[in-house]
Amino acid sequence: MKKEVESGEKNPIESFLRMDRIPHIWCPGCGIGIVVTSFVDALRKSDIDLDKVCVVSGIGCTGRVAGYLKLDSFHTTHGRAIPFATGLKLANPELKVVVFSGDGDLIAIGGNHFIHAARRNMDLVIICVNNFNYAMTGGQLGPTTPLEANLSTAPYGNFEYPFNLPYLAEACGATYVARWTALHLRRLSKSIQEALSHKGFSFIEVITPCVTLYARRNRLGSGLNLLKYYHDNSEIQHGADTKTLDISFQGKLIVGKFVEKEKPTFLDAMNQRLSRVLGDKYQLYGRINDDRD
Amino acid sequence: MKKITADPKGVLTGVHYLDGDFAIAEGALAAGCRFFAGYPITPSTEVAERFAERIPLIGGVFIQMEDELGSIAAVIGASWAGVKAMTVTSGPGFSLMMENIGLAAMMEVPCVIANVQRGGPSTGLPTLPGQGDMMQVRWGSHGDYEIIALSPNSPQECFDLTIEAFNLSEMYRVPVFIMTDECVGHMHERVVIPPPEEIELIERKWYEGPKDKYLPYKPDKDMIPFMVKAGDGYRFHTTGLTHDERGYPVINAECQNILVPRLVEKIKKNADKIIKFEEEETDTAEVIVISYGITSRVAIKAVQEAREKGMKVGTLRLITVWPFPEKRVKELAEKVKAFIVPEINYGQIVLEVERCAGGKASVIGVPHCGGGVHDPDIIFNAIKEALK
Lengths: 293, 388
Known about the structure:
The structure holds two protein chains of two kinds. Chain A is of the alpha/beta class. Chain A has one domain (29-281): Rossmann fold, CATH 3.40.50.970. Helix content of chain A is 35%, strand content 17%. In chain A, the strands form two sheets. Chain A has an eight-stranded mixed sheet with strand order 2-1-3-4-8-7-10-9, sandwiched between helices. Chain A has a two-stranded antiparallel sheet with strand order 5-6. In chain A, helix 8 links the parallel strand 7 and strand 8 (202-207). By secondary structure, chain B is α/β, with parallel strands linked by helices. Chain B is built from 13 helices and 18 strands. Chain B has helices at residues 20-30, 45-58, 68-80, 91-107, 136-139, 155-172, 182-186, 253-268, 271-274, 294-308, 326-335, 349-357, 376-387, and strands at 2-5, 14-19, 35-38, 61-64, 85-89, 111-119, 125-129, 148-150, 175-181, 188-193, 200-203, 237-239, 277-280, 287-291, 313-318, 320-322, 338-343, 362-367. In chain B, helix 10 links the parallel strand 14 (287-291) and strand 15 (313-318). Chain B is globular, with a radius of gyration of 21 Å. In chain B, 57% of the residues are buried.
């Protein structure tokens, strides 16, 4: 990286990052950086005004994403990224608010907010980095840990049923749902672009390698071995029934775009209802400069 | 610090007959609050109901969140978008908010939280009054920080102090609390709402320098950093982690020892400007009754009776409970024999009075565990005992 800067060749991603905070804290072989790269790639390819993009993260390894992106970025409390993002979005509907966090943060401690934001079709993009464990704290059992996987708080192997996240998201009302792995760089980037232009609750799950903890504890090898696993076991099935997307230990990974539908967002529904009931007394809220209409 | 007058849209000028909860909502709307996130909980729900009804006509957003953790998080988010925001709750919900109250203190986010107190602990007495959260509001989130807490004793004061709460919150970039109780919250009284031009509002200090030079946590001379709005192109970062002037996490003792003292001192050093209290006959008093909220109104009866019997009793009513009016209580401790501290808890603010009295005056707590207000006779007897 240093050499490139010296020779005057700047990596195009640099202008999206807080380079004064690099090197980042993630382990070698971690997949979070890949997801960040895909996200930046999506931002570059979409004609979105970057001044209006906010990134909100919770706590954990993925919670650190907000700190590296050179956007308005918020590193909040554990589990509360979605309601924080809800406040930002509702107070200024011009903002494009992206929640970037991990499976434990969004689905365990923050699960209640996740299901209700989906129910409301809150206009947010949720990028959930799923590494199958709590990595920041040293590799504990998480809400998406596959059965039988070994973790420090499941030392005899996991016996709790994990969530199937796309199914959960769809059932709760998400209007855009996709799943990719850290291997699907371009498809992920395209999905993020779609989510950025989708109006409503968009959910993208990204299966990523946690080499230091999940892989080591389960003797799955290096980051490369995990990417090889993704390569050999992923199957793209756009529009697959989300009920069928369970992930078993080192089993098949069904990826793709599963849901994309139109439905009024929270603010649309609020405006529709209030203007219908209150008539001229009600002024539409937050409809200025909304170029997606 | 920019001073402006209220937006007429939010001000229901006139004479009203309102309960304390409704008066809090009206005070907030008059103060320019345009975002409310809350979760129903007795006896605070009426504040949310009033917002839900009124805010669509004014131009703002009401959202009923899935829980109090979400409510306070949404309020902090909305405040970063540059909008004045509040939430309201009671004991159990207040406990749930604690972690994010720490986040608001750490990120220095202006926001207002009203707690219509009921009897605790746990589910306690949902429909009956309490003042048992007075220490929790000060110390409830982990770590060292300061907040401001105001305690209205009438619906009129609920209105007035909610405006004050927003002003203080904007001025000091700190969460400000309206610590009322079920009695005041549900008490109907005359509330006069002045015309908008008579309501003076303060806005947070907005940064106006070059975009690439903005440092979100570089303190100004008054120790308070300038703020910007999300979406205005500053591309700033903020975190609940210990951070430097750039808002970047720095995990070491040096940075902690710069940040935390500032969070504390920005309030402590301005305590004289923040603190409001009312006192009566303290010059000649031998005993002073210190009280706040609904208890201050009950105490009047006991004080009047004592005065009729020739006892020299003064009163000190705390309008600002936190920061505690330490200086004044210390001064009074030099002159009086005793302080009587009735409160609807098992003894909370009395500890602060004891600390300030420093053994120079005796301090007699008059606890009441909640579910009602004091019998004035009990306060009267405490006064009588103290004068013996």
